[in-house]
């Protein structure tokens, strides 16, 4: 039973997937979408969920540094609710503070060019969100 990790932004959704044992997260793809129209991500998400037999989703939950929930956090809550309702899977909100910055640092340390970083940053953030969730369960 695999889990999917999602870093949800206004224009892109970074996607990571766990192995069958729930030990490791691997980056899968970045979905281009329009946050104002959830259906723009529906087909791609459905294919991933079905192909990988996903039973749970871990959605990055961007809280403010003081722990309060702002507009991006509210958007993640709405997206998690939509996932549960439309795909019949459990969705967990997972604190993602600083994951994008951490992903950026890893890519810089790996000497990935700025152009290439832009293409994979959301997917890398999804990996960090999912791996953090998986680690907390072990």
From TrEMBL:
Its EC number is 3.1.-.-. One of its GO terms (molecular function) is hydrolase activity, acting on ester bonds. Residues 1-103 form the YqgF/RNase H-like domain. The keyword Nuclease applies. Its main location: cytoplasm. It is found in: Cytoplasm. The keyword Nuclease applies. Keywords: Cytoplasm, Hydrolase, Nuclease, Ribosome biogenesis. It comes from the Bacteria. One of its GO terms (cellular component) is cytosol. GO terms for biological process: rRNA 5'-end processing. Belongs to the YqgF HJR family. HAMAP family: Nuclease_YqgF (MF_00651). Could be a nuclease involved in processing of the 5'-end of pre-16S rRNA. This is Putative pre-16S rRNA nuclease. It comes from Halobacillus locisalis. The gene is ruvX.
